[in-house]
Structure formats: C-alpha cells, structure tokens
From TrEMBL:
UniProt keyword list: Hydrolase, Metal-binding, Metalloprotease, Protease, Signal, Zinc
Lineage, uppermost ranks: Bacteria, Pseudomonadati, Bacteroidota, Chitinophagia, Chitinophagales
Peptidase M4 C-terminal domain sequence ranges: 470-651
Residue span, Secretion system C-terminal sorting domain: 1154-1230
The name this protein goes by in its record: T9SS type A sorting domain-containing protein
GO MF annotations, alphabetized: metal ion binding; metalloendopeptidase activity
Source species, domain of life: Bacteria
Secreted as UniProt keyword: no
Signal peptide, first to last residue: 1-27
Family under the similarity heading: Belongs to the peptidase M4 family.
GO biological process: proteolysis
Peptidase M4 domain boundaries: 303-466
Amino acid sequence: MFSLHFVMRKRMLLAVSYLVIVTAAFSQENLRQNQIKENLRKDTRVRQFEIDPVRNTPSFLSFKTTSVISQNEANATLRTTFASRTAIDDWKQTSLTKHATGITIQKFQQYYRGIKVEHGQYMASAVSGRLQSLNGAYYEIASSFTTKPGISEATAVQKAIAFVKPQKMAWQAVEEMMKKQPQHAEALRMQMEQYKPKGELVIVKDFIGKSNQLRLAYKFNIYAAEPLYRANVYVDAKDGRILLQDMIIKHADGIVQTRYAGQRTVKTKQVTAGLLGLTDPANSFLPYAWTGNSLRPPIINSSFFILHDETRGNGVMTFDMNAVGGLPLSIPALYSQATSFTDPDNNWGDGDALTYNDHKRGVDVNGPGAGGVGEAENDDIAFDAHWGAEMVYDYWKIIHGRLSFDNNNSAIKSFVHYGPAYDNAFWNGEVMTYGDGSGDDNPALVGFKPLTSLDVCGHEIGHGVCEFTANLVYEKESGAMNEGFSDIWAACVEHYVLSHVDPTLPYDVWGIGEQIDLRAGRALRRMDNPNAEGNPDTYGGMFWSNPDCDPTLVNDYCGVHNNSGVLNHWFYQLVAGNDLSQMNDIGQTFRVKGIGFADAEKIAYLTELRLSPTATFAEARMISIQAAVELFGLCSPQHQSTTNAWHAVGVGNAFVSECAPSITFAAASSATSESTGANGCGSQKTYTVFIGKPVDNGLAASVSITAAGTAVNGSDYVLQSSTVSWSATEKGLKPITLLINGDNYIEGDETVVLSFTAPAGFSAGISSHTLTIADDDYAPQIGTTPVTLLSENFDAGVMPAGWNAAKGIAPNATNVWMVGDASNFGNGNAAFISVLGTGVPAYESATPTDVVLSTNKLDARTVSGVTVSFTFAVGGERDVPVGLNPDLNGDGAVTADEIVQLPNSGRPFDYGILVYSFDGVQYFDCSDPLLLLPQKQSKTVALPAILNGKEFYLGFRWLNDANAAFIPAPAFVVDDIVVKASPKSIQTTAGRFAETSIDKNTEAWQYSVEDGKVVGKIKSNNTELGCTRMNISQGGNGTSSFVYGTRSDKTFEVASATTAKKVSYEVTMFFTNEELAAWGADLSNLKVLRTTSPTLTLLNNKNSQILTPVISNNNGKYYSVTVTADGFGKFYLYKPTGAARLSANGESIATLGVYPNPAVFSLQVNVDAVSKGSLVMTMFDINGKQVYNKSTAVENGRFNTRIDVSYLPAGTYLLQVKNAENTWTQRVVVQH
C-alpha cells in the first residue's frame, strides 16, 4: 500500500522528522482547540463550561435559563461547538433515553472520517424539548491523522490473544462440543463463528503507554473459556501494541448475598411433561429432572413448576450450573451445562417430598448458609437469586421507568451454583453468575457465604445498566465509578425493598455484602464509612489507590473496587447528610443537608445516563450538579446538596449561590423575518419570546406584557398572550406568543418592544425584549438576462475594499492571502496564498493552515439561481489510492507531473475549496476540493439554493496539514471572479395569480403564488384595500380587435375584499417585450381599458373606464404599464380605431339603451350623455348587409328615437350608433 506520505519520504526524499510532524499536528490541534474555547467564551447562551485538562477540549457546558435551544438542535449545536469540519468530523445519535422525570438524554458518538472514536461520546440533556446542557468526551484529531492500518486484522487478533494468554478460547470450547454432539453441529457452528474475535477499526487513546495519544486501533471482543475472561482488547493498528483492555466480565470480589430473606412469593411457570418426558429448554440435550433429588430423575407424566417469571419484561429466569464453572455461560450452545430448577407443587418450601428439605440437601457443617462445597446441593439460594432479580427489575421500572438493564426489557438470567465453592459473583456482559462461596472451608475466613444476597443482585445487574448507559471503562477513575454506581444501586434496591416490600428485613443499606460476610458485623464495603473496610472516603485521602498506574488484575485495574468508596460516600452524604460540620482527609470542612433516597437516586441515574466512558470524578461532579439543576432547579436544595456532597469527598468546592429571585426575558433581543412560508392573504407565522422565573423561591408571580415599537399590533403582528403567571411552586421559562403577519410591503425593518414591571418580591433581570421584524420585501430585479452581483479581476493590485483576507477557523501568520503578480500561473494580478513576506504564490506545507479569503457582502435578496465562475491554479497534496504506484514511468522517482496524473479518488490533505457564510464568521463548504491543478483552470459553480433571496459572503478557503506537499507552488491562486444570478421573471401564464393584503397608503409587489413570478404592483391611495388579488386572466403575445378598437391578448384582473364605496389605487402591470411586440415601436397612443362588463360589447359608464397609462421601457428588458384606477375588474391595453371612441381619463362613457329586445314592430333607442353633433344609426343583418341608416342632429344630453322594424324579416341584427367620439353596438333580435 502506498500513500503520499510514504512516497514523499521514501521516494522524493523530502525528509521531515517525526518530531516536526507531531509538533505541527499538535499546533493544528491547538489552533482549533483554542478557537473552540474562544467560541464558547463568546457564546452568550452558555452559562458555564469546563475544559478537560488532558484532552484540552470541553467536557461540559450548560446553557443559561434564558437560552432557548431546541432539543432537535442538539446535533447542530455539537457541530457548531466543536467547529466540525466537512467530510471529516461527524456526530451520530446512538440512543435517546427518557428519564422518569421527563428529562430526555440524547447520546451522540464521535466519528472521524467515518471511523468511530472510541469513548468519544457526548450527551445532550433536554427538559420539555429545550436543551439544558452538553457533556462528554470530545477528542480533537488533526486532519493529517491517518486512517490506514499498518498491520492486518489477522496479525492484530493474534497480538490480542497473545496478550490474554488463554488456555482455551470460548469458540474452541464450542468446537470441542461440536465433536461430542454432531446432531447439533449446525447450531454450534453458528455459535462458534459468533464468538471468534472480529476486528473493528476505531480510534482510541493509548491507555497503557500513558502518552494519551490517539491511535488507530483494532477492537476485539476476546472471550476465553479457561480461565474465564472477557474484555474488549484494543490493538494498535500500526505496530501491534496493546492500547487498552476494557473488562466486560466485571467481578465483585467478596460481594455476597444472604439466603435469609425469609419466605418470599416469586413468579414461576407451570410445565407439563408427558410419558416420554420433556426437553429442558435451558438444556437442549437433557429432559426436565427433579432438582430436589440428588439423582435428579427425569420428570415423567407430571405437572411441575420452574423458576421462570414471565410477568416482568421478557422474563426473569434462574438456572442451576451444578457446580460447573469456567465456561462462557452466555453462549446458548453451552447451556447444556445448566438445568432448570423444578418443584412439583409450586410450594418450594412447605416440607413436602421433593420440596424444601430436598431442595436443601448439601452438607451444612458450618451452620445454615455458611457456604462451601456442600452448597452445590442446596437449591434454596437459587430462590434468593430469583427473587432478588425480580426486585431489581421492579426497582428500575417503578423508580426510574427503565425496563430491565438495557431499557429494552431483555430477559434477566441468573445462573446459580457456578463452580465448586466459588467465592465470586459477576456480570459477564449478558447474564448474572453466582458462586456458592467457600465459607468456613477457607480457614483464613476470607471466603463468603453463597453470593445471592439482594445487594449483590442489585450490584451485579447494575453493571448491566452501566454497560447500556455510560459504559464506563473498567479501569482507573472511570472503573471506580463503574463499581461505585453498582454499589449505589445495591443500596437503592435494598432501600426500595424495605420501603415497598418488607420493612422487617435485616438489611443495612449502607453495607455492601454485609449478609454474606463471615465476619460478624462486617461488610465488604461501607458507604457511610468507607474507611472502616479500608476504602477511601475522600479523593486522594486515606486508603486512596493511585489511578495512574498500569492497570492489571493484580492492582484491581488501578483500584476500581477500592476507589469506588469516594462515589459511595458522595451518595451517602447526598442521601443522609451530616448535622455538624466535619473535616475530610484533605483538610476541607464540609456540611451537607441530606435530600433522601427519592431525590438522590434520580440525580445518580441521570448522571450515569450522561457520563462518557472515560469520565473522571471531576466530570461526574459537573454532570450530577447539572442533573440536580435540571431536575429540581437552579439553586434548589438538591442543587446545593449535590455540590456540597462532592465537596465532602474532596471533589470541587462547596456550593456558592448564583441565584436571586427574578423575572427575566430569556434574551434582550431577537429577530425574525416577515416571511411566513406561505403565500396569500392572512398568511401568518407563530413567533415565541420566552420569559422566565429561574428560581423556585416559594412565591407566585404574574407580569403584564406591554408592546411598543415601530411595528403595529393588529397589523404587523398580533400579541396573543399579554399576561404570564407562575404558581408558588413553578419555575422556568414560559412562552409569549406573537403572530407575525406576512406582507409584500417595502417598509424597512420594524421592531416590537416587549416589556414588564417586576412584581413584589422579585427583581427584573432582562426587563425588555426587542424583536426586530426584518423586512424581506425588495423591489425585484426583473428580466431574462443574468444579473452580475460581483466582478473582480484584481487588476488594481490591491485587496478589494470590503474583502477580508484573514477569515476562517485557524488563520496563522505564515500562509496568508494576498493580491499580487501571479503571471507564472497563467494570471496577471490575482489573489493567492503566499508565505508572509515573500509575495510568491506558494505555501509553507509544514505549517497547518485553514484560512478564508472572503468577499464583501453580496446582495442576492432580489434574485435567485446564484452562480460563481472564476479562474484558478492550485497545488496541494492528496493520498494515493490504495494499490496504486505513483511512480507512473517506473524510473524510481515520483515527480509533480506524475502526481497530477493520478486519479483523484485519494483523500485530499492540502487543498482549496469554495465556501459561503451568512455572518462572515461561520463558513460552509459548497464545492469539491480543488487541488493538484497547477495550470490555469476555469470553473463555474452553482451555489446552494439556500442563498436565493439572501445576503451572504463568498469565500475561497485554503487548508493544509503539517506534512510536506507534492506541489507547494502554487498554493491557491484565484482570479476573474464573477458572481451572477437570475432576475425575477414576468408572469405570462393565464390563471396564475398573486394575493396579498394591502393597507392604506402602502405599496405591495404582486408575485404569483404558484411560482413567484412578477404579476404586478399595487399602491393604495388613502384606501385600505384589504385582501387583494391580481391575476392573469388571459395570456398571449398578440392583440385582438373588438368594436371599439384593438386590445391586448394579455389581460389582468384585480379584485379586492374592500367594502369602501370609493377607492383609488395605482396598479402597475408588467409585459415582456414579446407580449407587446404586436403593438409596434410606438406605444404612445395606447390606453388602458378597465371594465367589469362580462363582455366587451356591453361597456357603459357604470362598468368601464378608459385610463391614460404611464408606459416605461425598462432598459429594453421589459415594459411596465401604470394607471390610477377607481374601481376593479379586468385591465386591457387598448388602442382606439381612428378617433378616440370612448371618453378617456376617467370621464363618463355615454350609454346606449335598446328595448324591447327581442322586438316585433319597433325599437326604442336611448343614448345618455351624448355630446352635441351628428348621430348616425345603422343596422346590419347577419351577412353584414345594411338594412337601415339614418343621421340626426342632437344637442348635449339625452337622445331618444324609435326605429320601425316591422318590415324586416325575423332574425338577428347588429345596431350601430355612432358620433364623432363614440361608437356603440348592440345585438338586436326581430321576431314576428
């Protein structure tokens, strides 16, 4: 396999020392890490944040109670917080857990170039859909980090197995069983394949080498049968070193359970066996047998009961290992080692045959329940395991709403009698396993009674909960908390049983394993006084184990059981507290007010849900404090006690109040646009401003919201809620809802100023909130020719005004943007990356750079379809595709020419890319990487549609890592930058319409609701038009003749909802050049006809108006026709035939009246408002033949006459009445 780095070092002899590379990579990381911290400091939404001292990245940040970030924005917030790089960094949600209190926890996994970053996890906590905090572990990885392994998976797995040194692997044990049981060969073969180690490529920290460096690694689940071992083993994918072993089988050494919980009622299952018996499903190779008998005869023709509870999740089941141990019990194929416990009458302790006495058959030399080899015959301890598992399931479901250990209702399986006199109990990643204990068989009194006591059940299944929540790495501080949380759940389960099941049980909730300890009055660990059993109660105090050792089984993986005392004692202090001031081991005085189990266990569970796998005690402190804030409120008693309990164990300071009772807006200002996302009248959108009562101070509060500003309530917006109230027990944010009305007015930005006066007992925090409603209406650019937004050729030889050459994520003082002579690369003056002070288009490849050359702000608010074209030349570096030899001519040397000819499938290391930004701060990639094109190129890029109708910055971004480059010159040269966009088109399609509400003295552009094209513009004159529609009722590029002359095919129609008797408005209609071409070049004699008449033959002074327009030729691109009208209806461009036939400029139109129609003998003809002169009346038949003609002199006013039609044949005729100014026509029917 070749890579550019290999070629550069081996073939091109560009030697770069490892130290320089690492230093440069660290430099690149530090730049980004510093930028991340600076971003958090400037983020006004952040209440506090903590930086992990080892990773130098944020481990926790909480948001102010006044911030409003949606839970749905968690992923985007992570990306912003950590300045995620396109195609490099990614966060994927892996789980969503809802706490019983309603708090939701989203867990996200970090990925680098598609590879999982092990233990790189972040949790997002939300209350009522609003993001409260983020916490976890983020690993900053330089863009130069290689993701190509140096050794194969086969080599790596052998390294992992050699590290474990097993006598027999689990899959080998299954293979042996295949030979003994050929009838089950297929099922066993599937299990064997399942448990063969398979590698997953991940990125993980070097835990063993202590360098804390991130390494590419293979992760294997190594499962050994002899000796029993199961862990995730991480092998360095470069050199085969072991980086970490994360134990899956977690031993609770000495944690034991009692068999003296008294007689309990448990759920069982009834089974019936026939004459041939019935196969035990726990053991597919044996039939059910009576377990109350040493000979274990098969059950024939009988009904019986087994320890199988089907009422809880997918089952609580308990099985008998019959003193067999050392095999991986979670493999279904090996269940032949176990059998079901059976009883004939479901009274497992009534003294009848085959019941209690026979369930307890072992030698009892040391008294009841003493432990030892004889316990293998005593099945009563299985009842403790079964009942204990039921109680643990109930605890998690009832108290926390969690369904089984994985929150997916998985079955809880317990295996009892593991190994002869085995002094242990453990969770192996899938099931529970209990030993019988060695009891007094061990003369040193270091053994235990049977390990099935309730607190051991709670502890071990608690490891299962941890695996499916925080999954804390089982070593050092994270491992100590893994054990500590299990102890906490052991105490909580015992407390639950005492509170909800039986208060008479002899449990000491603060003693772990006190009932299985052979030493009278002793326990394996004590939570109230860890020192009593040799465990620390203070971080770094007495009995503390060094967590920075090399973790091994001998040192308990750097004290995971021992140091759990710190978390144990924190929980004890949180629950019980202390009445008097005390001093811990490191000399700090503390006092804690206990909050009881109910609140403390909620805080503990929410904390475990959110811890990252490698969390420390300091991180647990931060997360638990935030959990208390989210559950009970800022400065609540629970918040104070959680903080003080950590102080008691030497982690962090005591509580310092940061709260005062106040009412406050969430922010002093916000902004939104008028755009509602909908078209038409009445379009609105909901906008919410939040106001809060951050602290529960026991007082009710109510505030009245007043609204002011330049926007008008009821017109520009509607304030829906003017009063906000909190009860005495309420706190938090509440919404103030406004409805923003959409419009098409060009009116400028407007403001809504909300304010309140604080009620008695409260101070005012932010007492005023200014909402800016940004006017997103602009006079459109209209036409068909693209509009140029930017044209820059750098001929002036200087950086253009308004441009910024130092934007980006990690600008440095070495590789910078400048303007100068780039003629060597096909350009004259151009902008290019250059080493500071040299003026040459080349870059220093050993200095990591990420810098943007940004244009001034470009205005695309009135256009769409933005493109950019530019010329460029670029060098850089990319990885060589796998299997490809870059020495193309085989001469033993790789040249720049050969590199340029390589396929572009390799991952880019040094490259340029096109970017955009809305704020000039955060930039987004919008092109493919540009690299290894050292000769002048031309490129056109269609910019993202999100830029349509927006103002934005365009940028050219240069990135390089810290390794030597193939082509350092040019770095990135750009020139001849032209940004164009498409203007608005004029609507030409019939049936398309625009609709908007128009207030008095306002102007609104009319865009068709279907496609946004320009229909027209309406400006009201002292009239509120209300909802007004303007549509194209007829389209076309031609003209049509009618009785009064010629009119345009394209017809506009305006309708309004106004009830005003008199209206006046200005309407502008738009025509393309093609739509007016039929009129010729001279448009000066055109009029506009407005009419409500259903046809153009029925015009009169009541339904029609002739208007003189202002016609503008807009640079030859299109025409606008503007008139002032006092009514609605259809609008035509109109050209009279000869002299004007109708009165113009709004004068009355004379009207023609003809009746009766149809006529038999005569017609009465009336002409109103006719001027003095000669009036000619003519009738034509349907063939156009003149059948009547008469000329009459008339005076001003009304003209009346009668025409004899009795002599005309029956039929249809056209009557034409004409004077010097007007022509009227009327269809007449004659009947006889």
